[in-house]
Design brief:
With 82 residues, this protein is of the alpha+beta class. The chain has helices at 13-22, 58-68, 73-78, and strands at 26-31, 34-38, 44-48. The protein starts with 12 loop residues before the first helix and ends with a helix.
């Protein structure tokens, strides 16, 4: 089942960072606007934003959700993102 990104497009960076924390990711390091999160199972996510209200382009959002965090639609529902 594919993820409906139309609902995620308006998700601010602070909400995405909060969802990462809720899913067990920890902020490992930060350099400038790049925040690097890590999970105990080895997954790593990098969020780059200047303001907590920033949103991400579709391609970046897909990379964060599908490739880096490896979230499914069920995970997105559980975390309250959709």
């Amino acid at each position: 089942m594919s993820v409906d990104y139309s609902r995620l497009r308006s998700t601010p960076a602070r909400r995405l960072a909060s969802a990462l924390h809720d899913d067990g990711f920890e902020l490992r390091r930060q350099k400038g606007s790049h925040r690097h999160y890590g999970h105990s199972d080895g997954r790593r996510v990098t969020l780059s934003f200047h303001h907590s209200s920033d949103t991400f382009p579709l391609g970046t959002l897909k990379s964060i959700v599908e490739i880096q965090a490896r979230w499914t639609e069920a995970d997105l529902l559980r975390l309250g993102l959709i």
